[in-house]
Every structure is written in C-alpha cells, then in structure tokens.
Amino acid sequence: MKKWVLCLMILVLLGFGVTKFKASMARTPQDETQPLEINEPYNADSSAAGAEEGLTIDVTKEMVYQGDLLLVNKDHPVPKGLHPDSEAVSLIRNAELIDGFGVLDNKVLLSPQMAERFTAMVKAAGKEGINHFLISSGYRDEQKQDELYRQMGSKLALPAGYSEHNLGLSLDIGSSQAEMNSAPEGQWLKKNAWKYGFILRYPDDKTAITGIQFEPWHFRYVGLPHSAIIQENGFVLEQYMDYLKEQQSVSLKVQGQKYHVFYYPVSKDRTLQVPVQGQYEISGNNMDGVIVTVRE
Ligand SMILES: [Zn+2]
User: What CATH number is associated with residue 253?
Assistant: First the structure.
C-alpha cells in the first residue's frame, strides 16, 4: 500500500516537472534578445527511468576541438581537419542574409547562423539610432588567410590556421561613418555586444596576453552566458579559459536566465556526470577539455 502511494507521488512529481519544463520553454522570448543555440536538448523522458539528479553526457576526444568556445591564437591553431564553417556563403550573393548593415564586398563570407546572430545585435543598436555597421571580413578559408598573411606581413596578419577568422566565429566590423574606435558603432558594440554573445577579442589593455594589437573592429562570438562573464570580469578569451579551469563550475543569472558552466578535462572518451539539469550545449576549448553550459 505504502509502495503504491510512493509510486503515485513520484508520478505526480515527474508530471509536474515536465509541465514546468514545458512552461519555461514556452516563455522563452523570441524577440531580438539572443537565444541560446541548444545542440542537444535535455530529454525530459530520460529522467523518468532513472530519476537521477543531473545530466549524463558521453564525450569523445574530438569534442575538445569543436564548438563556439574554441580558443585560437598563436599557441593553439584551428584544429587540423576541422572545417568549421563549410556553411559560410558570400553575403552579397545571399542578400536575404543582409539586414540592417553594409557589407564591404562579395568576398565577405559568413554562415547564415552567424549572419543571424549579427543581425540580432545590429537591430538592437538600430533602435538606439546606431545604424552604420559595415562587415569587412567574416569567415576566411586557409587559402585566403595565407594570401592576407603574405600581403600584410606578420605584424598585421596571422598565418593560415592561426586566425580566428578561420573558425568562422569572428567578424571584422566597421562603421561607414568613422574609424571604429571613435565611431558610435564601435562604442555601442564595446558596451553592448556581450548581450548578443559577442566579445571584443583584442582590447587595447590586453595585448600582452592576446599577442595581438588593439583591434576595435574584431568581434568574436562565444555565446551567452560566456560573453557576460567575460565582460563582467574584463577578461579576454585566454583568461576566461584559465578562469573556468580554476573554478571548474560557475553559476550565474543573466537577464533573468539561470546558467551553470562546467569545465571538464578530456584526454580520452569519457562520460560526464553534470550535477544539474536543464538544456545544455557543449564546446571544446581547443586545448584539453570541454565546457558544458546548462540553461536551467
Ligand atoms: Zn579580424
């Protein structure tokens, strides 16, 4: 009899949990605020079997070299054999992707997903009267990077495979009105880009860490809540990766949304036990581990 009551209670609780989960999904704002790209949504049904706390995630060694948080710099090249942005297309030849900004020429390549992320950001700026954005570079394949390196030299360009542009997650953004550092577009991005998952990748006071001169035009997508933590602490990506390794887990609320971020070392295929539940996405750090981001 007691067992029966317990079973009923568990069923009721599980049912309640699922309803609550669905309700919170339905509330997700679909406006210009940056939605998280969820690669593998948490499967609510799987918890019914084991009724375990948290998430169990199988990861492979290759996952260290995939995702939005890959660190690429002079010490960590774009992983070999990875074609991160095979989806990139010429924006000018796909004009439906251009919405509220200019594009330098037909050689500017971007994936539709990145174009969408950028559009969400410039639309928000547009509402504040900042609307002279111009993309001068997006995804570059290694051949293009090699050309650039030969033309510009090692002081102004990086060799093929060592530039973030080869990842497809970076953009050079200018203003058609003024030099980016003084232009309203540059000022606005510096203050607000994080809300849309972007970071200023090479700030003027971090050249010793990044090894790259100040580039007020170069923005990198890392996604929320990472961009928020980076902005709040004044980190660059190198420092953020160190910070995550040190902390191992960080919980925070950004614009009303609760997030948990975990770092796990990965040297071979393994199974992760993540102590919280929710929707998650996973990215490698391009060095020695993965970062699991759970959205509650
Ligand atoms: Zn750049």
Answer: 3.30.200.180
Question: How far is residue 205's CA from residue 219's CA, in Å, rounded to a whole number?
Answer: 16
Cα of 137 vs centre of ligand 1, distance in Å, is 7
Give the chain's domain count: 2
For residues 135-159, average pLDDT: 88
Write down the mean pLDDT value for the chain. 84
Distance from Cα 157 to the centre of ligand 1, integer Å: 9
Annotated catalytic, 215? yes
Whether residues 259 and 286 share a domain: the answer is yes
Mean pLDDT throughout 16-21?
Answer: 35
pLDDT tops 60 at residue 7:
no
More confident residue, 28 or 295: 295
Give the pLDDT confidence score for residue 80 in this predicted structure.
79
| Catalytic residue from among 32, 37, 116, 215 | 215
- Same domain, yes or no, for 84 and 207? yes
Query: Which residues form the domain of 205?
Result: 80-221
Q: Tell me how far the alpha carbon of residue 158 lies from the centroid of ligand 1, in angstroms.
A: 10
